[in-house]
Amino acid sequence: MIKINRLTHTGLISSNLELSRAFYEGLLGLTPNPGRPDFGFEGVWYDIGQNQVHLMVVPNPYVDVVHPAHGGRDIHIAFAVDDVAQVRAELERVGVAYSMSKSGRAALFCRDPDGNALEFSAV
User: Fold this and answer.
1) Which of 17, 81, 100, 108 is the most buried (most CB within 10 A)?
2) Residue range(s) defining the domain that contains residue 114
3) Cα-Cα-Cα-Cα dihedral sign, residues 112, 11, 72, 7
């Protein structure tokens, strides 16, 4: 059996780093980690507690995939937030489409500029 100690990062594909950075830094308020090495392709790392989100500008093998309308029924990354209503209001303010959790819990789902599904839930 393999013993997993913790999740370290999630890698997401970006087709336009400038647009992705505006979303992750401008809307979500994340700060880039300057320690990202040169991998031979563009990208950025964001620290979130002990975890990271890695944006990678690489060829997207999922470009022709039709994603489910609700991000909770797709591959997604989940973020814990204090107030889902505040997230909802901010997404509405900037015109980002979202859907509420189908389970009835305090959570919502949206997609980043590349269609990556994101969950925001109160824990």
Assistant:
1) 108
2) 68-123
3) negative
Return d(Cα 74, Cα 34) in angstroms, integer: 30
pTM for the model: 0.94
The helix/strand/coil state of 47 is strand
Residues 46 and 82 in one domain: no
Return the biggest CA–CA distance within the chain: 47
The total number of structural domains in the chain stands at 2
Q: What is the pLDDT of residues 11-54, one digit of tens each?
A: 999 999 999 999 999 999 999 999 999 999 999 999 999 999 99
Q: Would you state the pLDDT for residue 71?
A: 95
Contact 108, 97 (CB under 8 A): no
Tell whether 89 and 118 lie within a shared domain.
yes
CA distances 108 to 30, 49, 93, Å, are 19, 21, 15
How many Cα atoms occupy the beta-carbon half-sphere of 79 within 13 Å? 24
How many other CB atoms sit within 10 Å of the CB of residue 90? 14
